[in-house]
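Q: I'm building a small set of examples for a reading group on sequence design. Run inverse folding on the following structure and report the sequence directly after it, with nothing in between.
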């Protein structure tokens, strides 16, 4: 049994999934498909992620942490997701948002 993580921004993952499903259909074998979202985080993990995204937004948009708006956080999440889907490295160095 295989488990697939399909990321639409990564054509290889989509192709691999579709090829495997097609093979099963061609063999006329029964199979089970379960589709779930990727949000399997605990409440504390989500809270920590929110703090990190706020700090990243402050650094990225060069505004004080206390001035961050919801739209800044939403924009930062989009940037982080795009970078994650493209395997980009997002390390940043001092000064961190906490230094200001």
């Amino acid at each position: 049994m295989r488990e697939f993580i399909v990321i639409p921004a990564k054509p290889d993952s989509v192709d691999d999934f579709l090829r495997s499903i097609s093979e099963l259909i061609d063999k006329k074998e029964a199979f089970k498909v379960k589709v779930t979202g990727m949000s399997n985080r605990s409440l504390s993990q989500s809270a920590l992620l929110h703090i990190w995204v706020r700090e990243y937004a402050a650094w990225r948009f060069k505004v004080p942490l206390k001035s961050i708006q919801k739209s800044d956080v939403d924009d930062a999440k989009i940037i982080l997701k795009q970078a994650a889907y493209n395997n980009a490295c997002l390390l940043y160095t001092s000064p961190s948002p906490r230094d200001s």
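The chain is about 50% helix and 0% strand.
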